[in-house]
Write a structure and sequence with these properties.
With about 350 residues, this protein is of the alpha/beta class. It is built from ten helices and ten strands.
Length: about 350
């Protein structure tokens, strides 16, 4: 596989020197891992700034101007969790634009799949609001760009971050052309993502939430993917799969209470790649969201990249999740979603 990556030193300048869990070190450890493990193996895709018109696919002009007004200022607090520093606006433009550059490379067949190793993250950002460490909703902008620029009819967004992607859900709440699927710890920040949140009356079933209590392991996430995501995805038949890849479900992450290992992320990635091969010529793009245990973040990103490349960290065939009885959450999700999708 020819796997593209987006990386840039400007991403390291966002809130540099400001004590924050969403630290530049998150990317520093990943970028060092790329040198150590993947030298010469990955296609570098150069990011570009997203334009105001592109950001306006998702965000209001007022929000874009508000974030732009922080440029060059030492410290602006947008909410209790979300701050900016002098180059944060520049980094945010390149984060969203890096995802668009990755879409371009994929659609022009320069790459087979890709991973945007960017910050600030994006899935909490709403049309008119920065929140949860996020300034612009990178993956939502990319989904709309893929539709408008390349005429794709349907995009599947899979969000495995610990936190529910409220901004992404709200962006496409009324749309049938985007299917948003999320696994997340619940109830937890930001408080959205309940079972009954399935989309507006015009798009019911195009939001699929899997709210989880604490302690879910690799096998649990794989079962949720195999028994819910894959059958729904096959019926939806996306033209592109985008992944909001947060690694705060890692078993030692300081913000979460899940028990996922790098093997778990590899297995989830493999399932998504198989679905993409069935539905959309293998088109999968992964976008970095959360993940705050530095070593775990590096190891987990490495495991995803190896799967994208057609390699693996899995040393033996993995036992299929369907040999186990269905998890209660699987039955709960289907009790809602069977109104919109067939249980296959």
């Amino acid at each position: 596989m020819n796997t593209g990556i987006v990386q840039d030193p400007v991403y390291l300048e966002h809130i540099r020197g400001i004590p924050h869990v969403e630290t530049p070190q998150r990317l520093e450890v990943i970028y060092q891992m790329l040198i150590d493990q993947f030298a010469g193996c990955l296609e570098q895709v150069r990011p570009r700034p997203a334009s105001e018109e592109e950001l306006a696919y998702i965000h209001t002009r007022e929000h874009i101007k508000k974030i732009a007004s922080t440029a060059g200022k030492s410290l602006i607090s947008l909410d209790p969790d979300t701050q900016t520093s002098p180059r944060s606006f520049e980094a945010a433009l390149l984060a969203a634009g890096g995802c668009l550059a990755l879409v371009d490379a994929l659609m022009s067949k320069k790459i087979d799949n890709g991973f945007a190793l960017i910050r600030p993250p994006g899935h909490h950002a709403e049309a008119n609001r920065a929140m949860g460490f996020c300034l612009f909703n990178n993956i939502a902008v990319a989904a709309e760009y893929a539709r408008k620029r390349y005429g794709l009819k349907k995009v599947l967004i899979v969000d495995w971050d610990l936190h529910h992607g409220n901004g992404t859900q709200r962006s496409f709440w009324e749309e049938e052309h985007i299917l948003y699927f999320s696994t997340h710890q619940y109830p937890y920040y930001p408080g959205t993502g309940g079972l009954g949140e399935v989309g507006s009356p015009s798009a019911r079933g195009y939001t699929v939430n899997c709210p989880l209590s604490s302690g879910y392991q690799d096998e649990d996430f794989v079962q949720i993917f195999e028994r819910i995501l894959i059958p729904v995805g096959r019926q939806f038949q996306p033209d592109l799969i985008l992944v909001s890849a947060g690694f705060d479900t890692y078993y030692e992450d300081p913000l979460g209470a899940m028990l996922v290992t790098p093997k778990g992320y590899a297995r989830m990635t493999r399932l998504l790649m198989r679905l993409a091969e069935e539905c959309c010529a293998g088109r999968v793009l992964v976008v970095l969201e959360g993940g705050y245990h530095l070593e775990g973040l590096s190891l987990s990103v490495m495991s995803v990249l190896k799967e994208l490349l057609g390699e693996t960290i899995l040393t033996a065939p993995e036992r299929l999740a369907d040999v186990r009885p269905a998890l209660p959450i699987v039955e709960k999700v289907w009790s809602v979603q069977q109104n919109f999708w067939k249980r296959m």
